[in-house]
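To: structure desk
From: M.T.
Subject: fold request, one chain
Message: Could you run this one when you get a chance? Sequence is below, nothing fancy, just the single chain.
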Amino acid sequence: MAINLRKGQRINIGLSKISVGLGWNPNEGTGYDFDLDASAIMIGTDRLIPSEEFFIFYGNTDSPEGSLHHSGDDPTGGNSDGGDDEVINVDLDKVDPRINEILFVVTIHEAAQRRQNYGQVREAYIRIVDEANGAEIAKYELDEDFSIETGIEFGRLYKRDGNWKFEASGIGYREDLAFFLSKYFKGQIIK
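Reply: Done. Structure tokens follow.
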């Protein structure tokens, strides 16, 4: 039976191959499509990405060591019919040993130009699925009203004592994708 997580709640993963599904339903009538972008940020103990290839999003769908794979962009929020809009497959056994945390964030593409925010999005969630059998392990549904935020940290995988755990974060930002990259990467961006 899947666990319904509350903000800040943590669970042990106990599996190596999981998928992280992110879903949302934009409200109708805003004049533009809602292009929400799921990303995974692979962070070392110094709170930084070792190189830009460890920033997984629609423009870089695979981590260099093959531990993460992004399903690709859903530019309208219409990929699913009540299910995951974007999925990131994770093989925890393959994660580079320098990485001890993976953040999952979702940002609204061109939010400022389109005057969009999370107050116009409903039924947003992150869920962890066992890749072996498709069973849902845990799900966290955003229940706060993020009326001005344009980027949300949904959750994070992190390693403690050699074991991977997941924490439901639910932290809102009034920022775009570039903010998250600049926060965790200090090198020159070449893509």
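Reply (cont.): The mean pLDDT is 89. Let me know if you need anything else for the meeting.
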